[in-house]
Write a structure and sequence with these properties.
Helix content is 51%, strand content 15%. With 257 residues, the protein is an alpha/beta fold. The chain has two domains: 2-153, 3-Layer(aba) Sandwich (Rossmann fold); 168-254, Orthogonal Bundle (ProC C-terminal domain-like fold), CATH 1.10.3730.10.
Length: 257
């Protein structure tokens, strides 16, 4: 299966790196273009793919075209292409209806991955039109599942999912930076402090598969203990509310408000 990336930015690179190291189903070949930045050549060299001369060449050689350009470029890019067999769109806040209007003869699937795809532990939300070719959808799902857990969502839920899972790695990194920084400032080696936070986040992620957030907080925070004091400080400074506001700000930006 040949996958072509139109656009070689951060999320395209994360998916390509994930597939390059995946143990499951992955593309037999990856092709890349860019708008003149040189990223396509650098990424192709990194993951063992090929930078191609034009989007036209990429589409003609690809079984799946991953559209990873800025949303404002959609119409110009689509107008310049031959008909792709299948389009997997990474464009934020761009509906299936709008995508299908630009690729009326192609199977179009809307994706929202998060950065974890780079290490084969991502989350990908997927929306497909009612008339999508089921065999193409199955092929796409099999490839995507080698780098992420895949969640089927209606198109109208994709913006909410983006704010919840697409943006959250950056928020978790803020937590890691804050706690790791305090550890380093108080005597831990910086890399050790960050590693401790990373391992704690990974363990908590696994716990969340089995226990509710409230149960985990209760299990860690003994009455009168240090965790309880920390939770009280978070509440006093708006810790949880800050994340709610981050979600609200992301949704507002996506919806153009």
């Amino acid at each position: 299966m040949i996958v072509g990336f139109i656009g070689s930015g951060n999320m395209a690179a994360a998916m390509a790196r994930g597939w390059a190291s995946a143990s499951g189903e992955s593309p037999s070949r990856m092709l890349f273009t860019d708008s003149g930045s040189g990223r396509a050549t650098a990424l192709a060299d990194e993951v063992g793919g090929d930078a191609v001369a034009s989007n036209d060449d990429l589409v003609r050689e690809s079984d799946f075209v991953i559209l990873a350009v800025k949303p404002a470029s959609l119409e110009d890019v689509a107008a310049s292409l031959p008909r792709p067999r299948a389009v997997l769109s990474l464009l934020g806040a761009t509906t299936l209806e709008k995508l299908a209007s630009q690729f009326p003869e192609s199977t179009v699937i809307r994706l929202m991955p998060n950065l974890g795809v780079e290490v084969n532990q991502g989350v990908i939300c997927m929306a497909e039109p009612d008339n999508a070719d089921p065999s193409i959808v199955a092929e796409a799902r099999k490839m995507l599942e080698s780098i992420a857990s895949v969640h089927d969502l209606p198109d109208e839920s994709m913006d909410v999912a983006t704010a919840v899972m697409g943006c959250s790695p950056a928020y978790f990194a803020v937590i890691a930076e804050a706690l790791g920084g305090e550890g380093a400032a108080n005597g831990l080696e910086p890399d050790v402090a960050i590693q401790m936070v990373a391992e704690s986040l990974a363990g908590t992620a696994e716990l969340l598969r089995h226990r509710t957030p409230f149960e985990i907080q209760t299990a860690v925070a003994s009455p009168g203990g240090s965790t309880e004091a920390g939770l009280e400080a978070l509440a006093a400074t708006g810790g949880a509310e800050a994340f709610r506001q981050a979600y609200a700000a992301s949704i507002e930006r996506m919806r153009g408000n």
